[in-house]
Design a protein that fits this description.
The protein is an alpha+beta fold. It contains one helix and three strands; from the N terminus they run αβββ. The N and C termini lie far apart (about 30 Å).
């Protein structure tokens, strides 16, 4: 698995969430749905498989 594939999937997922309110992008590793969890200072994109894909984004 190329790391760029992971980043592209996460970027596309976030773009869909912000423009359409939902996304059909799946995890490039295990092919399960991605989900977005967040609060006012950051957010995390994960897939449904434990310990698979997880990207954390933090604000200032």
């Amino acid at each position: 698995m190329d790391i760029n594939e992971k980043y592209k999937a996460v970027d596309k997922f976030l773009e869909d969430i912000h423009t359409k309110g939902h996304s059909d992008v799946v995890c490039p590793i295990c092919k399960t749905s991605l989900k977005l969890d967040g609060n006012t200072s950051g957010y995390i994109v994960t897939c449904q498989t434990e310990n698979c894909l997880s990207e954390t984004f933090r604000g200032i």
